[in-house]
Amino acid sequence: MIIRKEIEAREKRYFSPSAALSVKTRGRRKPEKECEFRTAFQRDRDKIIHCKSFRRLKHKTQVFLSPVEDHYRTRLTHTLEVAQIARTIARALCLNEDLTEAIALAHDLGHTPFGHAGEYILDDILKENYGRRFFHNEQSVRIVEELEKDGQGLNLCHEIIDGIRNHTPDDPWPETLEGCLVRLADRIAYLHHDIEDALRAGVLKKRYLPRHHMKVLNNNILDTIISDIIKQSRGKSEIKLSRAVQKAMDGLYNFMYKNVYINPTAKKEESKVPVLMRQLFRHYHYNADFQNGAKTNEDQVQHTVDFISGMTDRYAITKFQQLFVPDEWHALPSPAHPCLPAGRRQARRINDPQRNN
Protein backbone atom coordinates (compact mmCIF):
# COMPACT_ATOMS: atom_id res chain seq x y z
CA MET A 1 0.00 0.00 0.00
CA ILE A 2 1.20 3.55 -0.76
CA ILE A 3 2.11 5.34 2.49
CA ARG A 4 -0.05 8.35 1.56
CA LYS A 5 -3.12 6.11 1.44
CA GLU A 6 -2.32 4.77 4.91
CA ILE A 7 -2.18 8.32 6.27
CA GLU A 8 -5.43 9.23 4.53
CA ALA A 9 -7.08 6.15 6.03
CA ARG A 10 -5.90 7.17 9.52
CA GLU A 11 -7.39 10.62 9.00
CA LYS A 12 -10.78 9.05 8.29
CA ARG A 13 -10.57 6.87 11.39
CA TYR A 14 -9.31 9.37 13.95
CA PHE A 15 -10.23 12.88 12.83
CA SER A 16 -13.28 14.74 14.04
CA PRO A 17 -16.29 14.64 11.68
CA SER A 18 -15.74 18.40 11.31
CA ALA A 19 -12.10 18.06 10.21
CA ALA A 20 -10.95 18.63 6.63
CA LEU A 21 -9.73 15.36 5.13
CA SER A 22 -6.79 15.44 2.72
CA VAL A 23 -8.50 13.01 0.38
CA LYS A 24 -11.51 15.32 0.13
CA THR A 25 -9.63 18.48 -0.79
CA ARG A 26 -11.36 20.67 -3.37
CA GLY A 27 -8.16 20.41 -5.34
CA ARG A 28 -5.59 22.63 -7.01
CA ARG A 29 -5.75 25.04 -9.94
CA LYS A 30 -3.55 22.66 -11.92
CA PRO A 31 -3.62 18.86 -11.43
CA GLU A 32 -0.47 17.31 -9.92
CA LYS A 33 0.70 13.76 -9.67
CA GLU A 34 0.10 12.59 -6.09
CA CYS A 35 3.05 11.96 -3.78
CA GLU A 36 3.50 8.37 -2.62
CA PHE A 37 4.17 9.21 1.04
CA ARG A 38 2.69 12.69 1.68
CA THR A 39 -0.92 13.82 1.65
CA ALA A 40 -1.93 16.86 -0.40
CA PHE A 41 -1.80 19.12 2.67
CA GLN A 42 1.58 17.75 3.83
CA ARG A 43 3.00 18.40 0.39
CA ASP A 44 1.72 22.00 0.39
CA ARG A 45 3.19 22.65 3.82
CA ASP A 46 6.58 21.54 2.50
CA LYS A 47 6.27 23.77 -0.56
CA ILE A 48 5.66 26.78 1.67
CA ILE A 49 8.59 26.10 3.99
CA HIS A 50 10.99 25.85 1.05
CA CYS A 51 9.84 28.96 -0.83
CA LYS A 52 11.83 32.20 -0.96
CA SER A 53 9.04 34.35 0.48
CA PHE A 54 9.05 32.26 3.66
CA ARG A 55 12.79 32.83 4.17
CA ARG A 56 12.39 36.59 3.78
CA LEU A 57 10.06 36.73 6.80
CA LYS A 58 13.10 36.52 9.09
CA HIS A 59 13.99 40.14 8.26
CA LYS A 60 10.49 41.64 8.28
CA THR A 61 9.11 43.64 11.20
CA GLN A 62 6.59 42.25 13.65
CA VAL A 63 6.17 45.25 16.02
CA PHE A 64 9.57 46.89 16.52
CA LEU A 65 11.20 48.06 13.29
CA SER A 66 14.39 46.24 12.27
CA PRO A 67 15.24 45.13 15.82
CA VAL A 68 18.97 44.77 16.45
CA GLU A 69 18.58 42.83 19.70
CA ASP A 70 18.27 39.11 19.00
CA HIS A 71 15.25 38.28 21.15
CA TYR A 72 12.53 40.47 19.62
CA ARG A 73 10.05 38.72 17.37
CA THR A 74 10.22 39.09 13.62
CA ARG A 75 7.54 38.16 11.12
CA LEU A 76 9.13 34.70 10.83
CA THR A 77 9.14 33.91 14.54
CA HIS A 78 5.57 35.21 14.76
CA THR A 79 4.61 32.82 11.97
CA LEU A 80 6.23 29.88 13.74
CA GLU A 81 4.45 30.72 16.99
CA VAL A 82 1.10 30.91 15.18
CA ALA A 83 1.80 27.48 13.65
CA GLN A 84 2.72 26.01 17.04
CA ILE A 85 -0.40 27.34 18.79
CA ALA A 86 -2.67 26.26 15.95
CA ARG A 87 -1.19 22.75 15.76
CA THR A 88 -1.51 22.24 19.51
CA ILE A 89 -5.21 23.06 19.40
CA ALA A 90 -5.79 21.13 16.17
CA ARG A 91 -4.32 17.96 17.66
CA ALA A 92 -6.46 18.26 20.79
CA LEU A 93 -9.59 18.79 18.69
CA CYS A 94 -8.72 15.98 16.23
CA LEU A 95 -8.53 18.42 13.31
CA ASN A 96 -6.12 18.23 10.38
CA GLU A 97 -2.75 19.39 11.69
CA ASP A 98 -1.09 19.45 8.27
CA LEU A 99 -3.72 21.77 6.81
CA THR A 100 -3.58 23.93 9.92
CA GLU A 101 0.19 24.26 9.76
CA ALA A 102 0.23 24.98 6.02
CA ILE A 103 -2.22 27.88 6.43
CA ALA A 104 -0.32 29.23 9.43
CA LEU A 105 3.07 29.13 7.70
CA ALA A 106 1.76 30.97 4.62
CA HIS A 107 -0.64 33.48 6.16
CA ASP A 108 1.85 36.40 6.28
CA LEU A 109 3.99 35.72 3.20
CA GLY A 110 2.63 38.89 1.58
CA HIS A 111 3.50 41.22 4.44
CA THR A 112 5.45 44.34 3.56
CA PRO A 113 8.70 45.54 5.12
CA PHE A 114 8.16 47.51 8.36
CA GLY A 115 5.07 45.57 9.39
CA HIS A 116 1.65 47.17 9.28
CA ALA A 117 3.22 50.62 8.88
CA GLY A 118 4.57 49.54 5.49
CA GLU A 119 1.24 47.92 4.60
CA TYR A 120 -0.72 51.10 5.34
CA ILE A 121 1.68 53.29 3.34
CA LEU A 122 1.56 51.00 0.31
CA ASP A 123 -2.23 50.98 0.58
CA ASP A 124 -2.25 54.80 0.73
CA ILE A 125 -0.02 55.06 -2.35
CA LEU A 126 -2.36 52.85 -4.35
CA LYS A 127 -5.54 54.57 -3.13
CA GLU A 128 -4.23 58.07 -3.82
CA ASN A 129 -2.78 57.42 -7.24
CA TYR A 130 -4.28 54.31 -8.81
CA GLY A 131 -7.68 53.67 -7.24
CA ARG A 132 -6.50 50.35 -5.84
CA ARG A 133 -5.94 48.84 -2.42
CA PHE A 134 -3.23 46.75 -0.79
CA PHE A 135 -3.96 44.07 1.82
CA HIS A 136 -1.23 41.73 2.98
CA ASN A 137 -3.51 38.67 3.02
CA GLU A 138 -4.44 39.19 -0.63
CA GLN A 139 -0.75 39.66 -1.46
CA SER A 140 -0.01 36.40 0.37
CA VAL A 141 -2.47 34.66 -1.95
CA ARG A 142 -0.89 36.33 -4.98
CA ILE A 143 2.55 35.13 -3.89
CA VAL A 144 1.56 31.47 -3.60
CA GLU A 145 -0.62 31.54 -6.73
CA GLU A 146 1.38 33.75 -9.11
CA LEU A 147 4.84 34.84 -7.96
CA GLU A 148 6.68 31.95 -6.31
CA LYS A 149 8.71 29.46 -8.35
CA ASP A 150 9.56 32.08 -10.99
CA GLY A 151 5.99 33.01 -11.72
CA GLN A 152 4.55 29.50 -11.71
CA GLY A 153 3.08 29.68 -8.20
CA LEU A 154 3.05 26.92 -5.61
CA ASN A 155 -0.23 25.41 -6.84
CA LEU A 156 -1.66 24.93 -3.35
CA CYS A 157 -4.93 23.26 -2.41
CA HIS A 158 -8.10 25.35 -2.28
CA GLU A 159 -8.47 24.98 1.51
CA ILE A 160 -5.05 26.52 2.13
CA ILE A 161 -5.70 29.45 -0.21
CA ASP A 162 -9.02 30.06 1.55
CA GLY A 163 -7.37 30.03 4.98
CA ILE A 164 -4.66 32.47 3.87
CA ARG A 165 -7.12 34.89 2.26
CA ASN A 166 -9.52 34.95 5.21
CA HIS A 167 -7.17 35.08 8.20
CA THR A 168 -7.71 38.78 9.04
CA PRO A 169 -10.60 40.11 11.17
CA ASP A 170 -12.10 42.09 8.27
CA ASP A 171 -12.61 38.99 6.12
CA PRO A 172 -15.31 36.30 6.14
CA TRP A 173 -14.49 33.28 8.28
CA PRO A 174 -12.60 30.53 6.42
CA GLU A 175 -14.47 27.53 5.06
CA THR A 176 -12.62 25.00 7.25
CA LEU A 177 -12.30 24.76 11.02
CA GLU A 178 -8.55 24.58 10.48
CA GLY A 179 -8.62 27.96 8.77
CA CYS A 180 -10.76 29.43 11.57
CA LEU A 181 -8.30 28.04 14.08
CA VAL A 182 -5.31 29.73 12.39
CA ARG A 183 -7.16 33.05 12.35
CA LEU A 184 -7.69 32.79 16.10
CA ALA A 185 -4.14 31.50 16.73
CA ASP A 186 -2.77 34.55 14.91
CA ARG A 187 -4.47 36.86 17.40
CA ILE A 188 -3.42 34.74 20.38
CA ALA A 189 0.21 34.67 19.23
CA TYR A 190 0.64 38.38 18.69
CA LEU A 191 -1.15 39.31 21.91
CA HIS A 192 1.19 37.06 23.87
CA HIS A 193 4.49 37.88 22.21
CA ASP A 194 3.82 41.60 21.73
CA ILE A 195 3.38 41.91 25.50
CA GLU A 196 6.68 40.07 26.07
CA ASP A 197 8.52 42.23 23.54
CA ALA A 198 7.02 45.45 24.89
CA LEU A 199 8.10 44.52 28.42
CA ARG A 200 11.61 43.71 27.20
CA ALA A 201 11.80 47.01 25.33
CA GLY A 202 10.68 48.99 28.37
CA VAL A 203 7.60 50.28 26.54
CA LEU A 204 5.37 48.54 29.11
CA LYS A 205 5.68 47.81 32.80
CA LYS A 206 4.10 44.61 34.03
CA ARG A 207 2.27 46.42 36.83
CA TYR A 208 0.41 48.53 34.26
CA LEU A 209 -1.21 45.57 32.48
CA PRO A 210 -5.01 45.69 33.04
CA ARG A 211 -5.57 43.70 36.22
CA HIS A 212 -9.18 42.69 35.55
CA HIS A 213 -8.20 41.11 32.22
CA MET A 214 -4.97 39.58 33.49
CA LYS A 215 -6.86 38.05 36.39
CA VAL A 216 -8.89 36.06 33.86
CA LEU A 217 -5.96 35.19 31.60
CA ASN A 218 -3.39 34.67 34.39
CA ASN A 219 0.36 35.09 33.91
CA ASN A 220 0.54 32.30 31.35
CA ILE A 221 -1.77 33.75 28.74
CA LEU A 222 -1.14 30.99 26.20
CA ASP A 223 -2.07 28.13 28.50
CA THR A 224 -5.24 29.88 29.65
CA ILE A 225 -6.54 30.74 26.18
CA ILE A 226 -5.55 27.45 24.54
CA SER A 227 -7.11 25.41 27.36
CA ASP A 228 -10.29 27.45 27.11
CA ILE A 229 -10.58 26.92 23.34
CA ILE A 230 -10.08 23.18 23.68
CA LYS A 231 -12.67 22.88 26.48
CA GLN A 232 -15.23 25.02 24.64
CA SER A 233 -14.69 23.50 21.18
CA ARG A 234 -14.00 19.80 21.71
CA GLY A 235 -16.68 17.69 20.01
CA LYS A 236 -18.31 20.74 18.42
CA SER A 237 -18.45 21.96 14.82
CA GLU A 238 -17.05 25.42 15.61
CA ILE A 239 -14.07 26.99 17.35
CA LYS A 240 -15.26 28.75 20.48
CA LEU A 241 -14.02 30.73 23.47
CA SER A 242 -15.81 31.23 26.75
CA ARG A 243 -17.38 34.64 27.14
CA ALA A 244 -15.02 35.59 29.97
CA VAL A 245 -11.84 34.71 28.07
CA GLN A 246 -13.09 36.35 24.86
CA LYS A 247 -13.86 39.55 26.76
CA ALA A 248 -10.44 39.50 28.44
CA MET A 249 -8.68 38.97 25.10
CA ASP A 250 -10.57 41.84 23.48
CA GLY A 251 -9.86 44.11 26.43
CA LEU A 252 -6.17 43.22 26.40
CA TYR A 253 -5.98 43.93 22.67
CA ASN A 254 -7.53 47.38 23.19
CA PHE A 255 -4.99 48.04 25.93
CA MET A 256 -2.11 46.96 23.66
CA TYR A 257 -3.40 49.08 20.80
CA LYS A 258 -3.39 52.24 22.92
CA ASN A 259 -0.17 51.54 24.82
CA VAL A 260 2.03 49.73 22.29
CA TYR A 261 0.69 49.64 18.73
CA ILE A 262 0.34 53.44 18.57
CA ASN A 263 2.83 54.24 21.34
CA PRO A 264 5.10 57.15 20.23
CA THR A 265 8.16 55.57 21.86
CA ALA A 266 7.65 52.15 20.28
CA LYS A 267 6.69 53.63 16.92
CA LYS A 268 8.98 56.66 16.66
CA GLU A 269 10.96 55.20 13.74
CA GLU A 270 7.76 54.55 11.80
CA SER A 271 7.54 58.27 10.99
CA LYS A 272 10.39 57.68 8.52
CA VAL A 273 8.65 54.83 6.72
CA PRO A 274 6.32 56.91 4.49
CA VAL A 275 9.17 58.86 2.87
CA LEU A 276 11.21 55.70 2.32
CA MET A 277 8.33 53.69 0.85
CA ARG A 278 7.06 56.50 -1.37
CA GLN A 279 10.52 57.26 -2.74
CA LEU A 280 11.20 53.62 -3.51
CA PHE A 281 7.81 53.17 -5.13
CA ARG A 282 8.26 56.25 -7.33
CA HIS A 283 11.78 55.22 -8.35
CA TYR A 284 10.87 51.70 -9.41
CA HIS A 285 7.52 52.56 -10.96
CA TYR A 286 9.16 55.04 -13.36
CA ASN A 287 12.38 53.07 -13.93
CA ALA A 288 12.37 51.83 -17.54
CA ASP A 289 14.99 49.15 -16.91
CA PHE A 290 13.09 47.78 -13.92
CA GLN A 291 9.78 47.85 -15.78
CA ASN A 292 11.18 46.10 -18.84
CA GLY A 293 8.46 43.74 -20.01
CA ALA A 294 5.56 45.51 -18.28
CA LYS A 295 3.20 46.34 -21.17
CA THR A 296 0.56 48.50 -19.47
CA ASN A 297 0.48 50.99 -16.62
CA GLU A 298 -1.48 48.42 -14.61
CA ASP A 299 1.33 45.93 -15.17
CA GLN A 300 3.88 48.51 -14.05
CA VAL A 301 1.95 49.25 -10.85
CA GLN A 302 1.58 45.55 -10.03
CA HIS A 303 5.24 44.86 -10.78
CA THR A 304 6.25 47.66 -8.42
CA VAL A 305 3.85 46.52 -5.69
CA ASP A 306 5.17 42.97 -5.87
CA PHE A 307 8.77 44.14 -5.62
CA ILE A 308 8.30 46.70 -2.82
CA SER A 309 6.06 44.47 -0.69
CA GLY A 310 8.49 41.58 -1.04
CA MET A 311 11.40 43.58 0.39
CA THR A 312 12.77 42.87 3.84
CA ASP A 313 13.34 45.79 6.22
CA ARG A 314 17.08 45.82 5.70
CA TYR A 315 16.87 45.43 1.92
CA ALA A 316 14.47 48.39 1.69
CA ILE A 317 16.79 50.51 3.87
CA THR A 318 19.84 49.47 1.83
CA LYS A 319 18.18 50.30 -1.50
CA PHE A 320 16.98 53.66 -0.17
CA GLN A 321 20.50 54.54 0.96
CA GLN A 322 22.00 53.47 -2.36
CA LEU A 323 19.48 55.44 -4.38
CA PHE A 324 18.85 58.58 -2.33
CA VAL A 325 21.60 59.09 0.27
CA PRO A 326 24.87 60.60 -1.06
CA ASP A 327 27.84 58.35 -0.52
CA GLU A 328 31.04 59.64 1.11
CA TRP A 329 33.92 60.56 -1.16
CA HIS A 330 37.11 58.60 -0.45
CA ALA A 331 40.24 60.05 -2.05
CA LEU A 332 42.23 57.69 -4.21
CA PRO A 333 45.72 56.65 -2.92
CA SER A 334 48.58 58.83 -4.11
CA PRO A 335 50.44 57.21 -7.04
CA ALA A 336 53.95 55.93 -6.31
CA HIS A 337 56.88 57.79 -7.87
CA PRO A 338 57.92 55.70 -10.90
CA CYS A 339 61.68 56.27 -10.33
CA LEU A 340 61.74 54.87 -6.79
CA PRO A 341 62.47 51.19 -6.04
CA ALA A 342 59.55 49.11 -4.89
CA GLY A 343 60.55 49.20 -1.21
CA ARG A 344 61.04 53.00 -1.30
CA ARG A 345 57.66 53.40 -3.04
CA GLN A 346 55.92 51.51 -0.22
CA ALA A 347 57.70 53.51 2.47
CA ARG A 348 56.79 56.78 0.82
CA ARG A 349 53.10 55.86 0.80
CA ILE A 350 53.16 54.97 4.47
CA ASN A 351 54.92 58.19 5.50
CA ASP A 352 52.89 60.48 3.25
CA PRO A 353 51.50 63.07 5.71
CA GLN A 354 48.67 63.93 3.33
CA ARG A 355 47.59 60.28 3.26
CA ASN A 356 47.86 59.84 7.02
CA ASN A 357 45.68 62.88 7.64
Helix/strand layout:
Elements: H1 3-14, H2 40-49, H3 52-56, H4 75-92, H5 97-106, H6 115-130, H7 136-151, H8 158-165, H9 177-201, H10 211-217, H11 221-233, H12 243-261, H13 273-285, H14 297-310, H15 313-324, H16 342-351, H17 353-356
Helix pairs in contact: 2-5, 4-5, 4-9, 4-11, 5-8, 5-9, 6-13, 8-9, 9-12, 10-12, 13-14, 13-15
Describe this structure in words.
The longest helix is centred in the middle third of the chain and has 25 residues. This protein folds into 2 domains: 271 residues, Hypothetical protein af1432, CATH 1.10.3210.10; 44 residues. It contains 17 helices and no strands. With 357 residues, it is mostly helical. The C terminus is likely disordered. It comes from candidate division WOR-1 bacterium RIFCSPLOWO2_02_FULL_46_20.
Number of strands: 0
Shape call: globular
CATH level 1 name of the largest domain: Mainly Alpha
How many domains make up the 3D coordinates?
2
Mean pLDDT: 92
In short:
The protein has 357 residues and is mostly helical. Helices cover 59% and strands 0% of the residues. The protein folds into two domains: 3-273, Hypothetical protein af1432 (Orthogonal Bundle); 276-319.
